[in-house]
Design brief:
three-stranded antiparallel sheet; about 200 residues; Helix Hairpins; binds manganese (III) ion; mainly alpha; 9 helices; single chain; minor pseudopilin epsh fold
Length: about 200
């Protein structure tokens, strides 16, 4: 299987007025994400044992395998970025009723969810990702992963929403201010409709 860079689900300049400019997407989607896809295809191409596997199969196979670390890193980054683009929206920030009810039930309030998510995003030392996950116990939780990590690999549940907290995700728009980048995501960019769809299909 050859992997390809998915198209953005919106025009690259569509989020500029909400704090994520076109240049960010030209680099983040067009260069960073493309580089992970290209590297992954190269790794699969030279390893017979990896050919024909789906992205999810590659992630599970390579997770924890020292000899397959580059495969895990590039496959995880391809999955994470493909998911991340869907977690952004030109009409982001509004939380559908069903999801809001679940957030209130599991975190106490929407504000408490946002506080927990921000703490995960800001508290991730170095590169990584902040997640809203539906845990195996049926409760929503916030978590963070380093580098290319993802809930599919850790087995902690189903991903509903993610924020990329690698510096390349925010340096053009927010320079070094990851807390402001996270606040802006939660208030103006987060596609809670997509998160609600993930929850409904769980
Ligand atoms: Mn990234």
């Amino acid at each position: 299987m050859t992997f390809t860079l998915p198209s953005l689900p919106f025009a690259p300049g569509a989020l500029a007025a909400r704090g994520m400019c076109q240049e960010t997407f030209e680099f983040h989607h067009g260069k960073h994400h493309q580089a992970y896809v290209t590297a992954l295809n190269g790794l699969v191409d030279k390893n017979e044992a990896l050919k024909g596997k789906t992205l999810e199969e590659l992630i599970k196979l390579a997770h924890g395998r020292e000899d397959l670390t580059p495969v895990f890193n590039n496959a995880g980054q391809h999955w994470n970025h493909s998911f991340f683009w869907n977690c952004l929206s030109p009409s982001g920030g509004g939380i559908p009723g069903e999801l809001e009810k679940k957030l209130v039930s599991d975190f106490g309030s929407v504000d408490k969810f946002k506080e927990a998510f921000k703490a995960a995003a800001v508290g991730q030392f170095g590169s990584g990702w902040a997640w809203l996950v539906l845990g195996k116990d049926g409760r929503l939780k916030v978590s963070k992963t380093a580098n290319a990590g993802l809930p599919l690999a850790t087995g902690e549940g189903k991903a509903l929403l993610v924020l990329d907290v690698w510096e390349h995700a925010y340096y053009i728009d927010f320079r070094n201010r990851r807390p402001d980048f996270t606040d802006n995501f939660l208030a103006k960019l987060a596609n809670y409709e997509f998160a609600a769809q993930q929850l409904a299909s769980a």
